[in-house]
Design goal:
The protein is α/β, with parallel strands linked by helices. Helices cover 45% and strands 20% of the residues. It has helices spanning 15-27, 47-58, 73-79, 92-109, 127-135, 146-156; strands spanning 3-8, 30-36, 64-69, 84-89, 112-117. The strands form two sheets. The protein has a three-stranded parallel β-sheet with strand order 1-2-3, sandwiched between helices. Strands 4-5 form a two-stranded parallel sheet. 32% of the residues are buried. It holds the Pfam family CTP_transf_like.
């Protein structure tokens, strides 16, 4: 079985994340969308909420499984027998950052990192930007799924 992980904080999951996960699901037998539970990072949504949003957003994809992980991604990969990581590249600066992480992950465990370029429609998109727009009651409907949009409205009132 060809298995890959798409990691992230997904705070919240965006249409850019969904594009990468959907494209990966067309290429692999199983995609594990792994939500980082980083207690030192201040997230808008707790890990359970992020898992719920990602599960709801990916439910139409039969070969996507949503999990959480703590610590090093390579340890999660080793524990779940996942040989490769999918990472999205939105810009050249993303590549510089992601290349260092990919090389360290390979050195630590032999896990490969595969880069997928962002769909130009979403190349500007980030969870931080979505949160900022939602905070000021801007329209995020084209940036997130309806379920996530509703969670953002509830959070920001």
């Amino acid at each position: 079985m060809r298995r890959v992980v798409c990691p992230g904080s997904f705070d919240p999951v965006t249409r850019g994340h969904m594009d990468i996960i959907t494209r990966a699901s067309a290429q692999y037998d199983e995609v594990v969308a792994a939500v980082l539970n980083n207690v030192s990072k201040r997230n808008l949504f707790g890990v359970i909420e992020r898992l719920d949003m990602l599960t709801e957003s990916t439910k139409h994809l039969g070969n996507v499984r949503v999990e959480k992980f703590d610590g090093l991604l390579v340890d999660f990969c080793r524990e779940h027998d996942i040989p490769a990581i999918i990472r999205s590249l939105r810009s050249v600066s993303d590549f510089d950052y992601e290349l260092q992480i990919a090389q360290m992950n390979y050195r630590l465990s032999g896990v490969e990192t595969l880069f997928m370029t962002a769909n130009p429609e979403y190349s500007f998109l980030s969870s931080s930007l979505v949160k900022e727009i939602a905070q000021y009651h801007g329209d995020v409907s084209a940036l997130v799924t309806p379920f996530v949009e509703e969670r953002l409205r509830e959070r920001y009132g």
